[in-house]
Structures are given as structure tokens and as C-alpha cells.
């Protein structure tokens, strides 16, 4: 395929408004509060590249990829955002992003996991943040996005040890000290529920721990029955330690906020049978309440304590007090609505993992395990935000990831992505108007990048990155122009239509 030039793309997008009615969009940026932030996102390992440059050491994600986790694909170069950050920030500004969500590579900033700060890593993040702020964009920073330094995994097992609490807190202290004068929005950890299950139950993601019969791929080490709960417990303790540090040492001068990020389906009962209705609530308790209940109420959901028993660690009275309230906002990564079917028979198994303890199964409309593209017929943002409003007292919320998955290729006419964004932003507006305390929305992702579960096979980006071009040229998809028009307050009359050509 011949990739259109930017001029041709603009002509494609604006010249002929004739035959694509599904792209008519009634929701406007001005329908949301002025303080609401719209942006897009990435993470360090997925876009930075420069994997072994300027003092950076491997993370558990590097190790997983290098060991063949993606059939030989790695993010050693990826989008090379380490060298191309100025170009990328200019694209963000040109697009009209109000916020940019990214993460810091712990092993780039502190290569040994603790101790000395790497001057070149520090310089890179200072330069990146300065560039973002200079363009009038809010930086929203995640401290750890699945990329724990491998040296700490080797030394004491990473998140399986409580030693991680002190090291993670010390790392956060460096970030707050060095960047907190410009960064107000901090997230400690990304998708703690998915990271824990993928890393310690089914082995589908770093650090690749699991045990038979539960693993979905071979794992060199692990215990699927106990490790997810232990790692999750330590993640909560580490998160709360960082929040306490910020409030004690930085809040009064920096005036920022510290939150936690979870993956969130919107779970609906498969049928109206009582067992499935209860199973849908159980899904929320296990996938969301696992981390949110301790932060709001000081303890795990009762159903988790009942079904997991002694395999679920207990909070001491002191720990419960420390964890409860250790949250300024909750961030969600949300992509689709699922149906939940009861499978309580799994509780009869002698050996159980998290999935068996939760005693339900997800049913997708197409009958597969993951759809090729996400449906737009049942956007679930309003549902999941309403759930947080009702169950947890309407805490401040951010949507950190939301976007459409497509095959990764050079097709820039990503009309399905536009359909998806328009449906979900409209659904988000319904939630805002219904009183949900949601503060911002970020698409995933700004660039096509290295994805957690399938590397370069799928794409979520507003911009295509040509990996076969040594310059790694970025090309705006039609969705980038669409999102830009939305952000800049441009709109089309209800009768307007959009014609997209496959080539020009």
C-alpha cells in the first residue's frame, strides 16, 4: 500500500462528506466540563526503545520478550520515542491533546532498582516532561507499567517479596522529588489486576509465573494457587506506602494526586437467572473489589475471603488502616462489555487458582476468547462508572485506556476506531451527566506500539508507525484527524457524511 501524505489525508478527511453516516458525531468537547482532560497514552517499554542505551538495564518485560514470549519480537527499538520525543510531543500538540499519559522506566531511572540515579535517564524524563508542559499538555505519569527492574526480580522475587515495598517507595520518592514540580497526576501501578493474573496465575505476561494445570503457557517457576494473592497484597501495600509518602512529604508543596489503575470489563449477567446475576457481582468483587475494597473499606471483599480462604493474605489492623483511604483517584482501562456465567462447580476442585475461586466464566458475543475488534453496540463506560458511584461512593475517576483494536498494517482509514471512539465518548458523556465523578479520558494509544499480549500483531494507535522505515515515520490515521477535530471543537452538521478512500 502507498501511504498517503499528510496533505492527502487532510483532503481525504475534509473534502468529500458524502457516504459514511456512521461517522456523524453529535457529542462535542464543549459538552464536557472545561476541567475535564482529554488525551492519549503510552508506556515506557512499549514506545521508548533504546533498551540498552544510556545506562538502562532490563526489566521483567525485556526478559519475557527476550525469552521468546512474543515469538522473537521485542521492544528494543519499538517506536524509538526515546530519541523522537520532541517530534511526538509536537504531534500531540498538533492533534490537540490536553493530556498525555506515559510511564517512567524504573530501570532507566535507577538501573540497579535502588540506589544511584542514572543521570541520562533523569535527563530524558526531565526533557520529556519539559517538552510536554511547554506545549500546554498535562503530564499524567505512571510509575510502573509492568516493567519492574529485572535485578529486583532476580534478587528477591520482585512483587513476591515485601522487600519490594521499600524499594518501590524509594523509587517513587525520586520521581516525586525530581518531577513533581511539573507533574500533578501520578499513578503508582498499571492494571494491577491484569498484571497480577497474567504474571502469577496464567503466565501470559511478565514475570511469567504459573503452575500446572493453570498456566496458559510454560512457566519456569510459580504457584498459581497462591502467588496471585501474595503479589496482589504486596502491590496494595506498596501503593499505599507511596501514597503515604506523597501526602507526608510532597502534597503540601506540590498539590498533586496519586491513584491506582485497574483493568475493568463491564460485566453483565449471561442470563437473568439468579446464579448468573450473582456471578456478575462476583466478577466485580474479584476483578475490581480485590484492589478497590481495601483502598475504600480496608479489607478484601467477603466473597474473596470465603472462596480463597487461607491463600488470601490477611491485613493486620495496622495494614488495614494504612491501606484504607490511600487513594486520590481510581483509573480504569476499559475496552468492552462481557457476559458473565456462573461456574460455581469450580469451587469443588481440590486445587484452585484465582479463576476457580471466582467461579464464573466470561462469555463473549462471538464465542471466542478475544474479539478481533471490540463491539460498539454495548459501550460499558457508563455502567462501570455507575458501579463505582454506587458501590464505592463515587470516587474521582480517570479513564486511562480506551480504544479499538485493529490488525497492525498500513491502513490509515481506521473507520472502526472512529465508530468506537464516538460510541464510547458519547457513553462517557452520559456518565458525566448522570453524576459520575470522572475527571478525564485517554485513548489507547497515541502511537501503534508494542502490545502486551501480541507485540506488533495488533494496533490501537491514532498514528501508524512504519517499522520498516529506519526513520520510524509516524503517519496520522483518519482517527487522529477525527479526534483532533473533536478536541479542537470542530464539528459537522448532522447531514454531513464522510467519504474515506482506500488510496489517493
From TrEMBL:
Q: Name its GO BP terms in alphabetical order.
A: carbohydrate metabolic process
Q: Which GO terms describe its molecular function?
A: beta-glucosidase activity
Looking up InterPro entries in the UniProt record yields: GH, GH_1_N_CS, Glyco_hydro_1
Kindly state which keywords UniProt assigns to this record, in alphabetical order. Glycoprotein, Hydrolase, Membrane, Signal, Transmembrane, Transmembrane helix
Give the matching Gene3D superfamilies.
Glycosidases (3.20.20.80)
Q: Where are the transmembrane segments?
A: 12-28
- Tell me which PANTHER family the record gives: BETA-GLUCOSIDASE 11-LIKE (PTHR10353:SF169), GLYCOSYL HYDROLASE (PTHR10353)
- Name the family the entry cites: Belongs to the glycosyl hydrolase 1 family.
| The protein's name | Beta-glucosidase 11-like
According to its UniProt entry, this protein's organism is: Solanum verrucosum
